[in-house]
Amino acid sequence: MTDSKSDLKITWEKMPEPFILEERPAANIDKPLLAAALREILEIAGLMVEGILVAPKMGICATMDSKTVIKAPDLFYVGNVQPLPAPEVRRNYIPNLEVKEEIPAIVMEFSGATEGDEYSAKPTFPPGKFFFYERILRVPVYAIFEPPIGLLHVYKFNQSGYYKLQKSEVNGHYWIEGVGLFLGVWQGTKAERTGYWLRWWDESGEMLLWGAEMVERERQEKANVQQRADRLSAQLRAAGIEPEA
């Protein structure tokens, strides 16, 4: 399929076989941990239903003026993805191809202090990430997170059709329409990493939990029940009543 953005000719074409995306090692352990943590929350909350694609470092492909452009965001979310026929395995994502795959609802980039082109609006080939997500893909929400300092920038389209930096809405969180959750920054420890994280909150403002947090909450609830039972037993014995009776 062909699309037009200003004077650019954008087409959506299936990648040739065999096709291997360029692989680059992660700059640090933060990026895969942050992506996995966000996905884990959705899985535990039962929000990873059929048709949902949440992928870290998967190439999103487009053809710009007959040249293939591939960007692999640190994480992206698509709400209505058609399943591939078996035994085909998804190795990239191409919006608007054949079955009208949707544009991602949100793409995220986790930025370091001196790396990447997350804010680059370079329009010439190869285009910068900001330009690619805004002008070529037209992704509704682009989030850039700087883990070392906990800074989150969220961009959405304004009336003129360009990205505008958003102000947080509730408790420093941002409503992500295509996901149906708030996105925000949380500081703490998960596994071996202590620092700033991105997390999801529901419409009521309740933070969705990781698996380890849910286990700890259940353990604490059981401990509280046992403590109350022990206090009651002690009170009964002090009154001369055996609890078993």
Protein architecture, described:
- This protein has 245 residues and is an alpha+beta fold.
- It contains 3 helices and 14 strands.
- A 6-stranded mixed beta sheet has the order 3-6-8-9-10-11. Strands 1, 2, 4, 5 and 7 form a 5-stranded mixed beta sheet that branches. The protein has a 3-stranded antiparallel beta sheet with strand order 12-13-14.
- Strand 13 and strand 14 form a beta hairpin.
- The longest helix has 28 residues, at 211-238.
- The relative contact order is 0.13.
Blueprint of the fold:
Blueprint: E1 2-5, E2 8-11, H1 30-44, E3 53-55, E4 59-64, E5 67-71, E6 75-78, E7 92-93, E8 106-110, H2 129-137, E9 141-146, E10 151-157, E11 163-165, E12 174-176, E13 181-190, E14 193-201, H3 211-238
Parallel strand pairs: 4-7, 8-9
Antiparallel strand pairs: 1-2, 2-4, 3-6, 4-5, 6-8, 9-10, 10-11, 12-13, 13-14
Number-wise, the strands total 14
Q: How are helices and strands ordered from N to C?
A: EEHEEEEEEHEEEEEEH
Largest sheet: 6 strands, mixed
How many domain regions?
2
Which term fits the overall shape?
Answer: elongated
Tell me the radius of gyration: 23 Å
Query: How would you write the strand order of the largest sheet?
Result: 3-6-8-9-10-11
Approximately what portion of the residues adopt beta-strand conformation?
25-35%
Through-space gap between termini: 78 Å
Helix share bin: 10-25%
Q: What is the arithmetic mean of pLDDT?
A: 87
Structural class estimated from helices and strands: alpha+beta
